[in-house]
Every structure is written in C-alpha cells, then in structure tokens.
Amino acid sequence: MPGSLGALDLTSLVGLSEDEARQAVTEAGGTLRCIYKEDAPVTADYRPDRVTAWVDDHRIRRVFGLG
Fold it and tell me: pLDDT-based confidence at 52, cuts 50/70/90?
C-alpha cells in the first residue's frame, strides 16, 4: 500500500543498499536519485517527489533531502 513521502524518515535510508532505499522511497510515493560522487553536480530542478542520496560501495551514505 503506498505511503506518504513526507512521512518517510529520510535518515532511516542511511546504511541501506541502493535497492532497499529505492524500494522504501517508491513505496512512499517518490523516486530516488543517486549520486555516486559526493561532490558531483546535480540538476537544480526541484521535484517534491524526489529523494537525493549519495551512494558509496552500494550503500546509502548520506541523504540530502527532498527535491
């Protein structure tokens, strides 16, 4: 059953595999954008349904938030 992205504790994604995090975000009604270099440039377009996260060694290391 779809949840609410606003109710998802984004800090709970840290430490999950990319696939686990993607599933959690998708089930909450959003999309996951993964960055594979911590300082990599990303687009500046705002999407309230998107979670941006840094991935290292196939794990979520940091979540930057919605947008």
Answer: very high
Domains and CATH numbers, the chain: 5-66 (3.30.10.10)
CA distances from 44 to 11, 20, 47, 52, 63 (A): 22, 26, 9, 12, 16
pTM for the predicted model, two decimal places: 0.84
**pLDDT digit string, tens, across residues 10-37:** 999 999 999 999 999 999 999 999 998 7
Nearby residues of 28 by Cβ (< 8 Å), 6 or more positions away: 2, 3, 4, 5, 7, 8
- 10/17 Cα distance (integer angstroms): 14
- Beta carbons of 21 and 30 less than 8 angstroms apart: no
Residue labelled with tokens 């909450």: 28
